[in-house]
Amino acid sequence: MKKSLNLIALALLAAAPVFADSTKHLASPQEGDIVPSRALPEPAAAQAQAAVTPHAAGAATTPIAAGWKLDHDSKMDIKIKPFVAKSVDYSKHVNATELAAGTNLVVSTPNAVVRINPAPDTQDGTGAIEPEFVRLKDKHGRVFHGSEGMDKAVSDEQIRTAKVDVFAPGTSMFRLKKELGAGEVTMTVDALTADPGKKYVVNVHEKDSPYVLQLNTDRDAYVSGDTVTLSAHMRAGQHALPIQEISGVLTAPTGKTIPLSFDHGRASVSVEAEPSTDLSSGLWRADVTVVSHDGKLAVRRDASTAFAVAWPSARLSGTVDVTGDAKQITANVKVETAAAGRYEVRGMLFGTDKDGTAKPIAVAHAGAWLEPGEGQLGLSFQRDAVQASGLVAPFSVMDLRLIRQDRLMLLQRQQLGFDVELP
Predict the structure, then answer these.
(1) Nearest partner of 117 among 156, 170, 190, judged by Cα
(2) Which of 169, 259, 391, 421 is in the most buried spot, having the most CB atoms within 10 Å?
(3) Domain identity same for 334 and 411
């Protein structure tokens, strides 16, 4: 009996794959990857404000790991593609005196919708513009009083009665009649009783316009010290329009503004996380205004986009210790930490199909509290997920990310992580 058990044990050992532990290196960064050049201790002001301890930060010290199979036939695009903001509208800031004298609107498409509301710093419940007191003059000199030039109008009172709370207090709006056409329209507000210096925002929205301003950053997340590149393009359907005028401003979470200088529709600026603030809060915002011409027709657009800037309190060291047994493969990803906190590593294991295409097998997450110094977080992938996928070598971990959980920050992301050799 004992001899039979020994034979069974030997058979099981022979059937189990032999795994040779190895140390892997991270792949070279790809375009769009987030890779901090070094890990930096958090500024004293930020540490004091956040009171960074395991309990004060609300982060459990117990390591947690999770993982699950992925449908290997699903399309999993790990290429980093920046968000592209698209705009068919613009806004201009005027005061009551300018509205009473007449302000010019650049309209590129008939039936534009005009929205007027007091500026945020003057929203005291007064000064709403009633559409019936709006006078419009088109490019031919024709004058339209109130509803004569409007296809539809909604007053501030009607918006409040309908309990629509998505608009600022004092908002009214109207849609221009088709007869006004495209081109410059002069809008004058008669019987305006607001203080002459009261500020207003006039927004022109052209839903059906073929003219679209596209604005994007080269990534959607950065670490402090990175250079952000913004690109603006005016499109008319499939065609690009030359940009005659462009201006913009970058606003930090603290409210600090940085003017943007554009060259051929592109602007680059270095961004620094504000050390005197809670480093987990807020996004940076870019606001850009563009004027183009399609023949003699002027087109004006505003666009905005946002992105995150993280403080690089940790980074992936660049090496991974891969171990395994009959049940699972574990990749211990080395982390260089400069500030105590709860960190997470996540990644997806890919294999190769018969056509040589990389396809997903499983995803794994690992989180733990790390003190300053050299640490590691282990990603575990189950062997049965690999076998069930039917995929073969080469295997690799892709979309590798390092996240600061207690600050909700993406610190590092690499589209190509590291190769894994499976017997």
Answers:
(1) 170
(2) 391
(3) yes
Q: What is the CATH number of the domain that holds 116?
A: 2.60.120.1370
- pTM to 2 decimal places: 0.85
Residue 280's pLDDT is what? 56
Cβ neighbours, 10 Å, residue 158: 13
State both tokens at 167: 């608009």
Domain containing residue 232: CATH number: 2.60.40.1930
Number of domains in the chain: 3
CA dist 106 and 213 (Å) reads: 15
Host domain of residue 271? 211-310
Give the pLDDT confidence of 46-105 residue by residue, as tens digits: 665 555 454 444 546 889 999 999 998 888 888 888 899 999 999 999 999 999 999 999
Q: Distance between CA atoms of 189 and 256, rounded to whole angstroms?
A: 34
The per-residue pLDDT of the chain, averaged, comes to 89
Could you give the dihedral angle defined by the CA atoms of residues 368, 319, 415 and 359, in that order, rounded to the nearest 10 degrees?
Answer: -90
CA dihedral 274, 278, 282, 286 (to 10 degrees): 0
Does residue 270 belong to any structural domain of this protein?
yes
